[in-house]
Amino acid sequence: MKLSNLALATWAYGSLVLVMAILIAACAYIVYHGGPLITVDFLWLYPAGMPLGVEGGIFPAIIGSILEGLLTASMAAIVSIPCALYMVYGNISRWKSECFLFTLRCMSGLPSVLIGLFGYSVLILYLGIDKSLLSASITLTVMVIPFITLRLVKVFHEFPRETYEAALNMGLSPSYIWMHMVIPSAMRDGLSAIALGAAYAMGATAPIMYTGAVLYTRSIPNITDPFMALPYHLYILVNEGYSVDLAYATAFVLMVILLCINIICRWIGGRS
Amino acid sequence: MHLSDRFTSGIVPIMAVSVLALYIGLVLYMAIEAWPALIHMSWMDIITGTVWKPMAQSPVLGLSYIISASIYVSLLSLLWALPLGIGTSIGLSLGVSPRIRQFCLSTIDMIAGIPSVIVGFIGLAVVVPAVQSMFSLSTGESILSASLVLAFMILPYIVTHCTESIETYRLRYEETALGLGISPWHTMKAIVLPSAKGSIILSSVLAFSRAMGETMAVMMVVGNAPILPSLLGKAEPIPSLIALEMGSVEYNSLHYSGLYVAALVLLMILILTNVLVYMYSWKTRKDGHHEVI
């Protein structure tokens, strides 16, 4: 092998090994430090101690994060599914579809802090809605719509065009074909796209910091109540220096929840 | 036509158009909210001003240290992440079997799903103390730590994109090159990498725009002091500024509007990079190549 090719190979293998090692080490670090601290009490109790959070558990934060994920996913699905159907089957001009794609691609990279700022000033300051699970979920929905829609467009494109046209020629209406053929056949991949969007929303901190997440709640939140969320709880524990141990444990729980959603979605997506 | 049919075929275009309207509205809203600050001080004064005192009697909104901190951190993180990322992509494309490649790519993809607040926490627990003891600083919270943490955040993104474009070109030239007796590594160096150069540059531009907007991970390790950024000193990038001050601003004050100017800078960078990428992919499609990004 020539020297320059050897250098290229060394660079390639070296960085491959290094990158995989760094990425896996980061996960292992959280598992190593957080894993042993997980107890039944930690998962089932409310935060306690003074200041709140130095003792006790994170039960309301787990429930809050899950509720937030579900609410965001359902709102985003209601908007994203019609939007994706329109982009694939709406018979729109090339120019229009480029316009949609460009906007969605651009906005899928929108920094989460800008979404937080937008949500906070429109919902809380301008419309005067109280900080709540609902306002936080609406803000997160704005964040995940492009993410979910772009994936759904890909999923809907997989439905054979010939079948769609054959069905149209048999006199079926487009909406009948969507409801009875396209959506059922895309159910599995579509749901996994939406679940990935929910995982993305559940990990975000900046959008919910001022739109609904709080330090402590005394009960399971209603849709109009402020709520506790795992990422925000972790941020407060670390930033205020309350308890490093509980921060490791909280990070572990959050990471396990999100990785589980990711693995399940990829497994489902990989099978079809 | 059934009623339900009419409902569905009516609601679909309405939803789609309102999504478009939502995002265009978001951009316009940011511009409108930034307007009072832009009247108070001119664009140039804000971008070149060094003093950020939004609460003073007559507020001064100089963003230059804050913008340069953002650019500094992002460029530095690209400096760490690009060589590693491109090397990894070459390794994945040539060096390993398809099974291992698939395994590595899915692992990387999954790790990209780790929320930035956890990455920031790891950074605070590992990177900050390491930087602190290595350079014997009073605190390790610095641009250097932030750029290392940020490099971790954008690595998966760079690897995924680069692997995709390098694979495209490798598969296109592989058989011909092997037929001519050229070794795969030489083909990679002489043909594949030069052809994929454009899309690699573009994915780094996109990664740069991601890095500029990354909030939590950077905010937790950068120290958040709006001073002249230096490698081993504290700094405050745009997202940290917005996230930290958003909660305490008075609605419709100049401070509030000033935050929107900062937001507008981020938004402009995002839109600009996306336009760049769009123009490039449009040009390659017109030239009859496959779309690579």
From TrEMBL, chain A:
Main localization category: membrane
Keywords recorded for this protein, A-Z: Membrane, Transmembrane, Transmembrane helix, Transport
Subcellular localization(s) per the UniProt record: Cell membrane; Membrane
UniProt membrane topology term: Multi-pass membrane protein
Organism from which the protein derives: Veillonella infantium
Keyword Membrane annotated: yes
Record-given protein name: ABC transporter permease
Domain of life: Bacteria
Parts of the chain that traverse the membrane: 12-32, 44-63, 69-89, 101-127, 133-153, 190-210, 246-269
Matches recorded under PROSITE patterns: ABC_TM1 (PS50928), PROKAR_LIPOPROTEIN (PS51257)
Domain ABC transmembrane type-1: 62-265
Family (UniProt): Belongs to the binding-protein-dependent transport system permease family.
